[in-house]
C-alpha cells in the first residue's frame, strides 16, 4: 500500500505520518504472517489507515497546486508513476519468475492473471468475482494484496481532474468533499448489509476513506489547543489499536466498523506533529524508518507468505513467519534504496517515468500471455498431467458422500457411522478409513437407482476392528468401534457384514486375551492373540449375519502415491522419474502374506467368505499401474483410492449391494 507520496515532498515534513504508516503496514504484515496466533486479528484495518493518509497527502498537494495555478495532470501522473511503478514492477517480475519455478500450470496461469490485473490496477475488480479476502483460497494468490493499490489508483484517476474542474467552476470544495464522502459511505453501509465482498473490493464503497483524508487536507486550519491535541492523538492511536486487536475477519467489514480506524487515523493527522503520541511514538526513528519503506514492505510481504502456503500446503510456522517478516523488511529496504529513490529523485525524471511505465506494461503483457497459455504446461513432461496429479492429492480420504446420512460422528476420534440406501436387505461395511473409501461406489449405484440394500458404514481411521484391542494413544477410541458394530448388527437385524480387519502392531497397543494383556508390538504371541480374537468375533457376528472378510488392499507409500510423484519445495517442483512405472502385484501382495494367510485360516474355521479388491484396483495382470482412464491417478495418497476411481471401477462388492 502506498500511502501515496512521501511526506518529504511537502514543505513541512511530518515524521509522525511516516510513523503512522509504520503502524499501518506492520498491522497488515502481522495479520497476514500470523493469522492463527490471534495477535492482531483485525490487522487488516491497516489498509484503511493507509487510505486516510493517502487521501490527506495527495489532496494537500493537489489543493496547493491548483490554488497556485501550477496543477498539471501530466505532472501529477508522472509523479504517481515514479512513486508507484518502479517497486511494483520489480515485485511483479520477481513473483512471476518464482512462480515459474514452484507453481503448477493452473496455478501459474492464475498468477499470470493476477499479474495482468495488478499491472492494470484493477485487481480489486478481478478479485471481486472470486473468493473473499478472508477465504482460505485467498492464501494461494500471491498478489491478492494489490486490490488496495487498485482502489487507490482508481481514486486518483478520478479525483485530480474532478478537483480541477470544481476549482474552475468555483464549486464549494468543502461541500463537494462532504457530499462525495457521505454518498460513498452510504454505499459502503448498504453493501455491508447485503454483499460484504462487494463492499470490500469495490472502489465506490471505499472512496470515503480517502475522502476523509481529503477533507482533513481541505480544513487544515482547524484551531486546537495543545491539551486537546494530546487527547485527540491518544484517542486516535487507541482507536486504531483497538480495531486491530478486536476486529475479526468474520465481521461485516468495512461497513460501520471501518469508522473506528478511519476516525483514529484522522485524529492522529489532525492532532499535528507536536501532539504527545505523534511526537514521542510516531516520530521515533525506528517508526519513521519503517514508514519510509512501508510501500515496498506492503508489496513484498504477502507474496512471500502466499508462496509459503503454496509450497507447504499449510500456514507457515511461527519461526517461518518471523523469517518471512525479516526477509520482507530486507527486500523492502533494498527496493527503497536501490529502486524507488533513484527513480523518484533522478535528474532525468521524464525518461525514468517512461521506462517505469513501459516496464509495468511489459510485465502485465507477460502475465496476460502466461494466463492465456494456461500456465506454460510445456515446462513439464507431456506424458504426465501435473494438474491431475495435484488434484488427486486434494481429494478427501474420509468424507461421507452426498447421499449418506451420518448417524454418528466422533469429531475427536473421527469414528463414523453412516447409512445410505433404503432397501429391505441390510448390509454393514466395517473397517478403517480404507473401507470407508468404498462409499463412492455405493453412491454411484444409488444415483443410478441400482442400490438395492440399506447399507451402513461403521468405521474408524486406523482401527483394526477386532475386539479386545486397546490403545493408550489417540486411537483409544478404536476399542468402542467393534461394540458399535455388534450393537448395530443386532439392533437392525443386519443380514450381511463385510469386515476389513487389519493387524495392528503398535508400541502403545495391547490385546486382551484370556484375562491377559498381550502387547501388540509385532511379536508372535500378540499376532496369534489378535487373530484368535478376530475368529471369536466372526463367530459372534455369524450368529446374526453372513460374514465376509476383505483381504489386504493395494497400497504403497511410494509407488502408487501421487503425493510422491510430484513434490514441491522452495527450490521448485520435482517430478519423480519413476512416477509412470507400474508396480509388480507380487510386491504389493507381499506385505499381506502373513495377514492374508491368517484371514484365510479364520475364514476356513468359521465359514466366513473372502473378498479380494486387488483385481478391481490392479486388473488381472502381473503389474499394477498408478493411473486409469486419461492418465488420472487411482490413489489420493499411499493408501486411499480416489472417489472418481472407486465410483466406476470398484465392483467387488456389487453382488452384495444390487
Notable features of this structure?
27 helices, 7-stranded mixed beta sheet, alpha/beta, disordered N terminus, 658 residues, 56% helix, 3-stranded antiparallel beta sheet
Q: What's the shape?
A: elongated
Q: Beta fraction of the residues? A: 5-15%
Poorly predicted segments: 3-11
Radius of gyration over alpha carbons? 32 Å
Total number of helices: 27
Query: Got a strand count?
Result: 16
The average pLDDT score comes to 91
The N- to C-terminal Cα distance equals 62 Å
What does the model show?
Helix content is 56%, strand content 10%. It has 658 residues and is α/β, with parallel strands linked by helices. The protein has a 7-stranded mixed beta sheet, with helices on both faces. The protein has a 3-stranded antiparallel beta sheet with strand order 5-7-8, covered by helices on one side. Strands 10-11 form a two-stranded antiparallel ribbon. Strand 10 and strand 11 form a beta hairpin. Helix 3 (73-102) runs antiparallel to helix 4 (105-119). Mean pLDDT is 91; it is low at 3-11.
Summarize the structure.
The protein is of the alpha/beta class and 658 residues long. The protein has 27 helices and 16 strands.
Could you outline the blueprint of secondary structure elements for this entry?
Elements: H1 15-33, H2 46-67, H3 73-102, H4 105-119, H5 123-128, H6 146-168, H7 173-194, H8 196-201, H9 207-218, H10 226-246, H11 259-271, H12 276-282, H13 285-292, H14 294-312, H15 318-344, H16 349-372, H17 386-393, E1 405-409, E2 416-420, E3 425-431, H18 433-436, H19 439-447, E4 453-459, E5 469-471, H20 478-491, E6 496-500, E7 509-513, E8 516-519, H21 524-542, E9 546-550, H22 562-565, E10 566-569, E11 572-575, E12 583-584, H23 585-590, H24 593-606, E13 609-611, H25 614-618, E14 623-624, E15 627-628, E16 632-633, H26 643-649, H27 654-657
Helix pairs in contact: 1-2, 1-12, 1-13, 1-14, 2-6, 2-9, 2-11, 3-4, 3-14, 3-15, 3-16, 4-16, 7-9, 9-11, 10-11, 14-15, 19-26, 21-24
